[in-house]
Fold this sequence. Notes:
Elements: H1 16-19, H2 37-54, E1 59-62, H3 65-72, H4 78-81, E2 88-92, E3 98-101, E4 117-120, H5 126-129, H6 133-152, E5 157-160, H7 165-172, E6 177-180, H8 182-189, H9 194-217, H10 224-237, E7 242-243, E8 248-250, E9 271-275, E10 278-279, E11 285-286, E12 289-293, H11 301-319, H12 327-333, E13 350-353, E14 357-362, H13 368-371, E15 382-389, E16 398-406, E17 411-413, H14 421-424
Parallel strand pairs: 1-5, 3-4, 5-6
Antiparallel strand pairs: 1-2, 2-3, 7-10, 8-9, 9-12, 10-11, 13-14, 13-15, 15-16, 16-17
Helix pairs in contact: 2-8, 6-7, 9-10
Amino acid sequence: MAGSKHMFHAVMAPNGSEAALRLPVNRLTDTEPQLDLKRLRSYRLGRLRAELAAGDCAAAILVDPISIRYATGSRNASVFQMHVPMRYLFVPVEGPVVLFDGESYRATAEGLETVAEFRVALPLSHFFAGPREEETIRRWADEMGALVRTHCGAGPRIATDFGQSSAVTALREQNLDLVPAQGFVERARSIKSPDEVLCMNLALAVAEAGAAKMRAALVPGITENELWSLLHQTNIAMGGDWIEGRLLSSGDRLNPWLQEASDRMVRPGELVGFDTDMVGPLGYCADMSRTFHCGPGKPTPAQRDLYKLAFEEIQHNMELLRPGVSFRELSQKAWRIPEPYIRNRYMVLMHGIGMCDEYPAIYHRYDWDSAGYDGTVEENMTLCIESFIGAEGGHEGVKLEEQVLVTRTGVRCLSHFPFEDELLGG
């Protein structure tokens, strides 16, 4: 048949650089290419297992909801799970992946080739177990120990992110050599497949739609909370999950940065800055920042100066990125923040991004000795390049941030929302 090779549209296999330029269709259709979610899940589980093996670990026991989703594609009450562990995952380097959850949640594992077995979870929190918490923790450790002995042998090294002291003690009584899991998971997540980049583009498209609604709604009298709610509503309506912070502020609340959205009304002539921090569709994070000017009227020269400096910082530091450059070199060669703005600088130059903010965090030269660590930028890392410019004691500030993919020759910018011409001009 002529054109028969195009009859099915289930596979998209661009390389990383090409994926940066594509936006997947986010509705089920037989006429357009679809995300290959099975390939996505297989890549992620393979990355995790490879990192565990490289760290001489036989398996991981995970409770972090983002790590569980990364390894399996299964999601259930993620925000609740962050403070009340009700599900957990056993991932051996070789052998069956076992997902534990409530009896009523079996559907969360249906159709997932990454999950070989579903078992009913034990209540590990005081909320569910009450005074029987210690008893259930010991039963849980017995079951984990049996799984490890069956699939990993005796006395192996096991990575876990469940830090509850009673759980750690109970696992060690099973003759398990425990190490923290987060480093293995973060390193696995740091290198993205093309399918992950496509997922990220979808999340960014949703965030950009929300940003456009905020920009259109920005009039005197609207509150910070009203503006911020438009991003959240857009994300939920388009299939996203949650927003990690409430980072939208205006006028005198813009500087210093990191003041959460409030019921403060925006006044004419003020700047409004926001950071999306948005976990969107398919669990991937869109993390871009923009600063708008509320009309009527034009920005002041001082506002334009702040904006131009933040833009210059982003562009300079983006040009430094390439595979093989060290974190230390990036810190040393980063844009020189003018003296008045050093104190209120953003906490990092740039950071990794995936299903949330993640490894690496690359620090300013001013913070290198106290917090910095070295490493190497690799192809197919995704990073967010940060800037906040606001003088100590100053009235306003500007927050900007771009999300990029590291390619063989440099970077491709994944965030597409335009900068403000009237703040860059003049």
